[in-house]
Design goal:
Helices cover 8% and strands 34% of the residues. The protein is mostly beta strands and 146 residues long. The strands form two sheets. Strands 6-7-8-9-4-3-10-11 form an eight-stranded mixed sheet. Strands 1-2-5 form a three-stranded antiparallel sheet, with no helix packed on it. The two termini are 18 Å apart. One of its GO terms (molecular function) is metal ion binding.
């Protein structure tokens, strides 16, 4: 897959990665809803060491996760755009928000999994072809299974 690039709204922080994401996930948890002021987030999961960040980010730490483990949101300190998330829930991984990707980023990475559907907006239908989990997927499920 071709490299992907993106930026925050004001352009102060740019990101790139040149790897095939393990999975594209829609998350309906209340934390993601609050962080985006919307019904869900869509993210590609990649190895953190494959993500290149140009510019300074700030980090917000949240303990309000389904797992009870800390989640870290990395955002632009100028415009507040959340670029990616990391967490103790999956050490060494980054959840890059597809909305910050340039070009066809939103269309290029088709979600295959929806998590935390128990918090999904009642008016929102599940996406065709996705595996839907009311909470998190089982720990034994790997991206190769999805």
């Amino acid at each position: 897959m071709a490299p992907a690039a993106g930026s925050c709204s004001c352009g102060a922080v740019k990101i790139t990665f040149d790897t095939t994401p393990e999975v594209t996930v829609i998350c309906h948890c209340t934390q993601c809803q609050k962080m985006t002021s919307g019904p869900f987030t869509t993210s590609v999961i990649i190895e953190l060491d494959k993500l290149k960040v140009d510019g300074e980010t700030k980090t917000y730490t949240s303990m309000k996760t389904g797992s009870g483990l800390p989640s870290y949101s990395h955002f632009c300190p100028v415009c507040g755009t959340m670029l990616y998330g990391t967490g103790d829930w999956s050490p060494g991984k980054a959840a890059v928000r597809t909305g910050v990707l340039d070009g066809d980023g939103l269309s290029r990475y088709v979600p295959s999994v929806e998590i935390n559907a128990e918090s999904k907006a009642k008016w929102l239908a599940s996406q065709e072809g996705t595996m839907v989990f009311q909470k998190k997927p089982p720990a034994a499920l790997t991206p190769r299974d999805i």
